[in-house]
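Notes from the 1:1 (GR / supervisor)

We went over the backlog. Supervisor wanted to see one worked example end to end before approving the batch request, so GR pasted a single chain during the call. The sequence is below; no edits were made to it. Supervisor asked that the structure be written out right there so they could see what the output format looks like.
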Amino acid sequence: MNPDDKSFFLDAMEDVQPLKRGPDIHWQPSRNTRTRQEVDSEQLDNFLTLDFLDLLPLEEPLVFQREGVQQGVIDKLRSGKYARQASLNLLRQPAERCRQMLYSFICQARRDGLRNLIIIHGKGREQNSHPNVVRSYLARWLTEFEDVQAFCVALPHHGGSGACYVSLRKSDEAKQDNWERHAKRSR
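Structure output shown during the call:
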């Protein structure tokens, strides 16, 4: 690298901030035979559809909010203020594989009591590109889960329009724990 290139590079990188390292859990299907059998039997129950779909225009952001979800929750989700507890990478996967991975991922997140997820689906530059097909299916599939209360486009440093934040409904155990914690304070 000649001195001019190095100088140009340093000037271009002047305002770049390093990413903060968080406690993100990167979920991978287990290699354990018993767990794999549970996942295989789960796939029999997979209700996510692969029917014909209209592709979402690239300029249309992924966004969904179930009725009754408070606007403050959505605002916090959009601004990336919830810690991402797990992530799923769907890049370069066929649609059927994405369908299976998403179903297993959401089911496992529910079993683990997780609430805030990020899904990396990629972004295509053309309307009919594979990433846009996956993105369009993802928009449909996430609404098919009753436990998904909201999702939206991720912030640029988390993948921007190639990723989305997903908020899951609070589990019954978490609701009970929250109720007990607040009941103790009011006494």
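Supervisor's comment: The chain has six helices and five strands.
Batch request approved.
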